[in-house]
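Worked problem 6 (solution included).
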Amino acid sequence: MASLHFKVTRKPAVLVAPSLPTPKEFLYLSNIDDQPTLRFHCPVVQFYRFDPSKKGEDPARVIREGLANVLVIYYPFAGRVREAPAGKLVLESTGEGVLFVEADADVALEELGDLLPSFPCWKDLLYDVPDTLTITNSPLLLIQVRSICML
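Solution. The predicted structure is:
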């Protein structure tokens, strides 16, 4: 479906930190998780249909607040991967937070039709995080909430 065109409008990326203070510590990655061939970010895109019972609620606000709360329990995700001596990776629990982007697209989910899951326009939807070609010293997660128009 090469004729599918839509516009994406993004707000600036923000860091969402845990809603409460979290431990500050260093956590060494296992030898399996520390393999050089696994040092990359993996994009995952999930589509959810609008729930009419949630009309009037801002999905981005709900997810941002929920994310801040869950980062208290899963606080290592709010940290940064650092390179320790001898190239070993360590997770520094800093509480800096994860990247959060709010965006809107002027396309209906129904217009994507049979393109899912092999959607050809990923680059139009995904936020390209600057300076994250490696996993060190960058946020571990990027959560992007995109509102897609409903028919």
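Discussion: The mean pLDDT is 80.
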